[in-house]
Design brief:
alpha/beta, eight-stranded parallel beta sheet, two-stranded antiparallel sheet, 15 helices, globular
């Protein structure tokens, strides 16, 4: 293999403490851990060993929920030392608003005002912690913001409460001078029966109702869009087009299954390829964050292989994207399929009454237009050949 597959800082590959730090429990609460837990500092060292650029955390991935002030300071000291030792950075932080029993019916959308107030308090403290380590993106995943039955919650009330919480936290961000960009993460279901704002598109619509929409974007996750049966790259493209792609979660998923969080590129080769190609073609400069987990079958050597595999696969697809863009035969076919007809130029662009009248009067030869083959079958097979190393 003639191209370099070594992860470098400029690739901005990041992992969460909760990803490589997973002890191998799964979605069934009665299952047992497979791997012994590691401290946040040791997880940082593991990521430094495999060549990652950065590490992200939920507030309680770093500081346990009931840690004493002395315990908190000791953990932060060790974590900071590990970051310095490895050179890793903390680009993103987030708040766990879904694990504790208090969030059994949501956090920001809970019917209970005490729960909503506690969620705001926890989020502010999490923002303080993230800022302490230099994070500039703050992600919100509303894992419990939903319902199993609509008799329990009014979705309009839920959205109102969610909006009020984000508006409050935007103002807190400004008051503290943290400079965060907030990134909202969508998911259609699990662990709730239905989660509010279930897709990236829904989040983009919601953002425009906020007091500070310029501060808020999205964190699309591949597995979550696939759970909804959608094309992840299309969601990412929509977010990019709106100027709202503030962060991204990469993993893999067998469509319409539970949230599997597999190694990036394990399942969906074409979807992963086009996602990488899109990010590289448009010049996305943010983190490539792998929100995924190693198999339960693995020890920590297997976890390292998992982490290396995520980054290696991204770099393979990046190289394949370069080859795709430089394949003269393939690009000629693509250009042919997009060939401009100069006779139609007069109808393009902005509206004018004269242009509309001329277009209404124009006669199209529908049969001739429809009879033209577009060569998509050939192009798709050429892509397959390229990905399989036959071009």
């Amino acid at each position: 293999m003639s191209f370099d597959l070594t992860p470098k800082p400029e690739h901005k590959f990041t992992f969460g403490l909760w990803t490589v730090g997973s002890t191998g429990t799964d979605q069934f609460a009665t299952t047992f851990p497979i791997r012994a837990g590691k401290s946040p500092a040791d997880i940082v060292r593991l990521l430094g060993e495999v060549g990652a650029y950065g590490v992200n955390f939920h507030d309680n991935d770093l500081i346990p929920l009931d840690a004493t002030p002395a315990e908190t300071e000791a953990i932060k000291k060790d974590f900071r030392a590990a970051l310095k030792e490895t050179g890793l950075v903390v680009p993103m932080a987030t708040t766990n608003l879904f694990s504790s029993q208090i969030f059994k019916d949501g956090a920001f959308t809970s019917n209970d005002p005490k729960v909503r107030a506690y969620a705001l308090q926890k989020a502010m403290r999490g923002m303080d912690l993230g800022a302490e380590f230099g994070a500039k993106v703050y992600v919100f995943w509303g894992g419990r913001e939903g319902a199993e039955t609509d008799v329990a919650k009014d979705p309009l009330e839920g959205l109102k409460h969610f909006r009020e919480a984000l508006n409050f936290l935007c103002e807190y961000n400004n008051s503290q001078g943290y400079g965060y960009k907030f990134a909202l993460e969508a998911k259609p279901n699990e662990p709730r029966g239905d989660i509010y704002l279930p897709t990236t598109g829904a989040m983009l619509g919601f953002i425009e109702t906020l007091d500070h929409p310029e501060m808020v974007g999205v964190n699309p996750e591949m597995a979550h869009e696939h759970m909804a049966g959608l094309n992840f790259m299309h969601a990412v493209a929509q977010a990019w087009d709106a100027g709202k792609l503030f962060h991204i979660d990469l993993n893999d998923q067998n469509y319409a299954r539970f949230d599997q969080d597999w190694r990036f590129g394990q399942q969906s080769w074409k979807q992963s390829f086009f996602l990488v190609k899109f990010l590289e073609d448009v010049g996305y400069t943010g983190s490539r964050h792998f929100d995924a987990h190693a198999f339960r079958t693995e020890d920590y050597e297997g976890v390292k292989e998992f982490a290396r595999g995520c980054m290696r696969t991204y770099l393979i697809f990046k190289e394949k994207a370069r080859q795709f863009n430089e394949d003269k035969e393939l690009q000629a076919l693509i250009a042919e399929s997009k060939a401009e007809d100069k006779s139609m130029e007069k109808f393009s662009g902005k509206f004018s009454a004269e242009k509309a009248a001329e277009l209404k009067a124009f006669t199209f030869d529908r049969n001739a237009i429809a009879s033209r083959g577009l060569r998509y079958e050939k192009m798709d097979q050429m892509l397959t050949d390229l990905m399989m190393g036959l071009r």
